[in-house]
Design a protein that fits this description.
Helix 11 crosses helix 17. The two termini are 31 Å apart. The protein folds into 5 domains: 129 residues, NAD(P)-binding Rossmann-like Domain (Rossmann fold, 3-Layer(aba) Sandwich), CATH 3.40.50.720; 143 residues, Rossmann fold; 162 residues, Rossmann fold (3-Layer(aba) Sandwich), CATH 3.40.50.261; 115 residues, ATP-grasp fold, A domain (Dna Ligase, domain 1, 2-Layer Sandwich), CATH 3.30.1490; 126 residues, D-amino Acid Aminotransferase, Chain A, domain 1 (2-Layer Sandwich), CATH 3.30.470.20. By secondary structure, it is an alpha/beta fold.
Length: 709
């Protein structure tokens, strides 16, 4: 990947002597950035553009070309790529559009250029992209015009499916925090994709922060695995979140697990920060460019009482804490300002400080306190006062204090628009437009810090359980009439999760015999592959006390089910011992098209979809992640014991989540599974699965993470 960013010679196919042709912006950008390598324009006719000779073909150049930029009509791209291959060029950027984004003809062209690239071992970025930028090598090949001040050298690298987002990011970061390192606009990503570039940027010494703007995932599971290895912060801005699932959700889990919910859970699990807006993406980069916070206790300091209160409110909303400053420190601050004050607290009102040297002393004292993890600072432009330091000098000292103490200071500067813009351009230390933005930046740091600290216990060895379950699964696949609810219960039971496995009765007489054997009261449920949610069609009868009640329930249920459900196949009824006690929960899993096996936990029962109180993780999960899933749902406090009730057996629940996640990895054929409800009992008494359903596919998911187990 490095060759895309550090070429010593670049050829541009599609050049013209006509100064107004958009293709010539690539040449203009290279000259504007003062690219030190050789530039070779190639066009239909010989001529000159910006002092450079235009060649008619690559063959004419007779020099090594490190990077070819292609901007000819789509139909001509295959010929240019063949010519490049014959000339020994193995890196290309295809800016041209009109490929797999534009119908059948374009799709065929896309297939053709992919085949040509494979034949000649050419790696290419695009098509339908803006190309690459590298501030370190002065490479800049987008067709949109750029200026030197928009591509300052910095520490952030951006990989984007949208050229506009790359342009906006480069410009904004060059104005607001020093600049960018690299930008790669990957467009249709027919060859090089975000994963190729992510692996490179993780190792790139010039890149300290990585941003991915994505409209689709090339391979969500691989992104997850790569990101977990990164020691650099990764920010993902994922759009196109309203796309509908191509398949109808059959289980509660699949209905609740939207593409975006799964993506959000996977990114967080991998330690990736997620931005939801362009502005948020920029603010996150700024937040991560200063020393990282150690805890969540803040000092809010402002030259305005109102802004100080806004900062405190924002900290509370974002679940940050206000540091407890010592009485001695507060008295010292109160005696330092022009207006001597006795009632200084945190937030610290700096309204009486008009000398910015005094402000620096106070900021340094506060940040040095062990109980302070970071500062949100809001001040007026010192140009307004007779201060010893200029605003830029003051901000340089703020940056120095932050780096020396190794704690973050997020600064909001109150100023007119034009002076503020000039200060931002001249200052490499990030500034924030509002006090809320400054506190948000600290919350971003705290979120990232918590991601870094997560411990992971090893997965349990479940080879014996897997072997047993494989036998059950193979038998079920051989018998087309095997009930999927029974299969679900038997498989999870094989993996050590306690289940009230039902017995199948094909008629009333068999139901009587089974009920006598297991003992009344019993539960009776319809068994049919055509009925997924039994309660919805009257297919469940609880608390059946005796044989007479059993006969009545059997006939009533069969009549109601046949009336309300379109069920071509009814195997009979399932009978279980009635379990009244316990809190109803749901465990589930699905195969996600981007990320593979996903596990779900939530408050269960028939109303699970109404409450939507669920959490997700990619399988497999460790014990710590299982506890995290449990704590994430809104209703988790019910499990800890409320209103005099005993706490429930959360360790058993966490263990079941881990076991189910390993089952999902071991059986890539499983597309959906619901264990709903499970009954969780008091601490030390475990849990039991009382119902389940499962769907399997003959085309199993290719498991890229199985080797980790």
């Amino acid at each position: 990947m490095k060759r895309f960013f550090y070429p010593k010679s670049i050829a541009i196919s599609g050049a013209s002597a006509d100064q107004n042709k958009v293709t010539n912006n690539v040449i203009a950008n290279l000259l504007e950035m003062r690219f030190q390598g050789e530039i070779f324009p190639i066009g239909k006719s010989r001529g000159e553009i910006r002092g450079l000779f235009i060649h008619k073909s690559l063959k004419e150049i007779q020099k090594d070309i490190d990077l070819l930029v292609i901007m000819v009509p789509a139909a001509k791209v295959p010929d240019i790529l063949c010519e490049a291959g014959e000339a020994g060029i193995n890196r290309a950027v295809i800016i041209t559009d009109g490929f797999n984004e534009s119908g059948e003809e374009g799709t065929q062209l896309a297939k053709k250029i992919t085949e040509i690239a494979e034949k000649y071992a050419i790696r290419f970025i695009g098509p339908n992209c803006q190309g690459v930028i590298c501030s370190d090598s002065d490479v800049c090949v987008p067709f949109a015009p750029l200026f030197k001040h928009q591509v300052k050298k910095g520490i952030v690298s951006i990989v984007t499916q949208s050229g506009s987002i790359g342009w906006i990011g480069a410009s904004a970061l060059s104005h607001e925090m020093g600049g960018i390192s690299k930008v790669a606009s990957i467009g249709n990503k027919l060859d090089v994709d975000e994963l190729d570039l992510l692996e490179y940027l993780i190792e790139d010494p010039e890149t300290k922060i990585i941003v991915l703007y994505l409209e689709s995932f090339s391979d969500g599971r691989r992104l997850f695995e790569i990101a977990k290895r990164s020691e650099k912060p990764i920010i993902v801005f994922k759009s196109n979140i309203t796309g509908k699932e191509s398949q109808i959700a059959l289980s509660h889990t699949a209905a609740l697990a939207s593409d975006d919910q799964v993506a959000g859970a996977a990114l967080a699990q991998a330690g990736i920060l997620r931005a939801h807006t362009t502005r948020e993406m920029i603010e996150m980069c700024k937040a991560l460019s200063v020393p990282l916070i150690r805890g969540k206790d803040l000092a809010i300091m402002a030259g305005s009482g109102g802004l100080a209160l806004i900062g405190e409110d924002t900290a509370h909303r974002l679940e940050l804490s206000m540091a407890q400053l010592s009485e001695d420190l507060l008295r010292d601050i109160g005696a330092s300002g022009l207006w001597k004050r006795q009632n200084i607290t945190n937030p610290v009102d700096l309204g009486g400080f008009f000398n910015n040297l005094d402000i620096l002393k106070v900021v340094e004292k506060v940040l040095s306190q062990d109980e302070v993890d970071g500062i949100a600072l809001s001040l007026f432009n010192t140009k307004e006062y007779n201060s010893p330091l200029t605003c830029l000098e003051f901000l340089t000292q703020i940056e120095k204090i932050s780096k020396t103490i190794s704690k973050p200071i997020m600064t909001h500067l109150v100023s007119d628009h034009f002076p503020l813009a000039e200060i931002k351009i001249s200052n490499r230390f990030p500034l924030f437009d509002t006090m809320e933005d400054a506190v948000f930046a600290l919350s971003v740091q705290w979120k990232y810090r918590r991601m870094l600290k997560k411990a992971r216990s090893p997965y349990p060895n479940m080879e014996k359980e897997k072997k047993k379950a494989r036998g059950i699964f193979a038998k079920a696949m051989d018998e087309n009439s095997y009930p999927n609810d029974l299969l679900a219960m038997e498989l999870v039971s094989a993996y050590g999760i306690s289940c009230a496995i039902p017995a199948l009765a094909v008629d009333l007489e068999e139901a009587r015999l089974i009920a006598k054997k297991i003992g009344f009261p019993v539960v009776m449920k319809i068994s049919s592959p055509d009925i997924l949610h039994k309660t919805d069609v009257g297919g469940v009868r609880c608390d059946i006390e005796d044989e007479a009640a059993l006969e009545k329930a059997f006939h009533e249920m069969m009549t109601e089910v046949k009336k309300r459900a379109k069920a071509n196949n009814i195997y009979g009824v399932m009978l279980q011992k009635m379990i009244s006690e316990g809190t109803e929960l749901i465990l589930g899993g699905k195969h996600d098209k981007d990320f593979g096996p996903v596990i779900m936990f939530g408050m269960g029962g028939i109303f699970v979809e109404a409450f939507e109180d669920v959490s997700f993780r990619l399988a497999p999960i460790c014990l710590e992640e299982a506890y995290g899933m449990i704590e994430e749902v809104r209703g988790h406090t019910r499990l800890q014991g409320v209103r005099g009730k005993e706490p429930l057996d959360i360790p058993s629940l966490a263990d079941a989540l881990v076991r189910l996640s390993i089952l999902l990895m071991d059986f890539p054929e499983i597309t959906e599974v619901d264990l709903n409800p499970i009954k969780l009992f008091e601490k030390g008494k475990g849990l039991v699965v009382v119902d389940g359903m499962m769907n399997a596919s003959p085309h199993p998911f290719k498991n890229t993470a199985a080797k980790q187990l």
